[in-house]
Write a structure and sequence with these properties.
Blueprint: E1 23-28, E2 35-41, E3 52-55, E4 67-68, E5 70-77, H1 86-97, E6 103-106, E7 113-117, H2 118-122, H3 128-142, E8 148-154, H4 161-178, E9 188-192, E10 204-206, H5 219-228, E11 234-238, E12 242-244, E13 249-250, H6 251-260, E14 286-291, E15 296-301, H7 314-321, E16 330-333, E17 353-355, H8 358-363, H9 370-373, H10 385-394, E18 405-406, E19 438-440, E20 443-445
Helix pairs in contact: 1-3, 1-5
The chain binds iron/sulfur cluster.
The site of iron/sulfur cluster (SF4) has 12 residues, from loops.
Length: about 450
Amino acid sequence: MFDEIPVEVGLVHEGERIRRKDMHLEMGGPDVKEKFELVQVRSPEEVQDGAIRVLGPDLGEMKEGGSYPLGILIEISGTKLEENLEGVVERRIHEYSNYIQGLMHLNQRYDIWIRLSKKSFKKGFTSLQLLGKVLIELFKSELPIIERMQVTFLTDAEAIKKPYAMALSTYEARDARARGLTDEEVDSFYGCALCQSFAPTHVCVITPQRYANCGAISWFDGKAAASIDPEGPIFTIAKGSCLDPVKGEYAGVNENACKKSLGEVERIWLYSAFGYPHTSCGCFEGIAFYIPEVEGFGIVHRGFQGLTVNGLPFSTMADSTAGGRQVDGFHGISLEYMRSPKFLIADGGYESIVWLPADIKDKLKPYIPSQIFGSIATEQDAADLDGLRSFLLSREHPVVTRWSEATVNSDAGTLPVLSGGDLPLVTHGVRIILKNARIYADRVIIEPLKKEKQV
Ligand code: SF4
């Protein structure tokens, strides 16, 4: 099947990582703004079956060690193909590209990142035509409803601009289709195990109000995928009884998660980052990270360059979040989930969000309750935790009321009971040392207690 391809192609290569020192070049990724992959359903006469075009420099013409723009436009036709299958077909680009030895494909949509290894380049993988051939072969053999397919690669920095803008508006239109439906209104959710090659215990639970972590598969996409390929990686989850409507716990979800994770994940709370949170593979668009110092969440997305307010970059937090585990307070999410009324609702929803990159805050403005919008800091308001604390206080963010605090009672010469989160400290008639305390007009704000508890 792949006689013309100079490297191996097969499932065995999925999950292969290519480190910078082993890479010949990369396309997309954090150093490149314009990158995308998009599948579009067309009429048969618009698709020249098997055609592969490269608009811009090909792999052999690119400099070793360089980063290049990349657009992958796949146009398909077939009598049973509908527009609502585009997202699901598109997500398979990730899977099939990763079958190629020495080629690593990460992320999705406007976030793609491809690396080619030095070894595979030396073996002759020197043209995107080869990637196109593999994709056409795999798509047409695995999804026979695709009758005709053509692939266009865009690598020219100018030529990619217009299609890139078109791709962004297509993603937005797709996401908008799924808004408005609630989790209570449907009988079934959908599960996706596509990322198990990287995170073996991970299953995405896709509901109308909890979009897939990668931000590429909506509930409608899941429904369409499960109907055309019921044995495939996207499957139906009968909701079963609702065990907790606030946390979002369903008997059918627990049962499926347990089965698909081989017993590793027994329960899932869909709308919480604590307790039994949804697992995170590695494809999440963003991370909700708990900041104990202020008892709220920061959010960072993959495209954010630099350090977040807790001093860590996205990449470091991604390592703590990924792998298909349930990690309290490090939670992989999609940006579309942030538009949902169920977004982290069990943890306080937007009333618990304290920090967001400015571009995301701006993008999500219509979905953030107006009374909280001005109280959420961005990198322009707070660069570190001291700055964040001051900002939240000055804006009277709701989390401030959760902070451990005590009114100083100078007459009694004592401090009343301190409370808040995991910081119990009782003082009745005894002297207390409050390290790093900050005294404001009517309250004492206490830094999280480490070893300094001393009575
Ligand atoms: S992130 Fe989730 S929905 Fe997206 S491909 Fe991976 S498993 Fe599927």
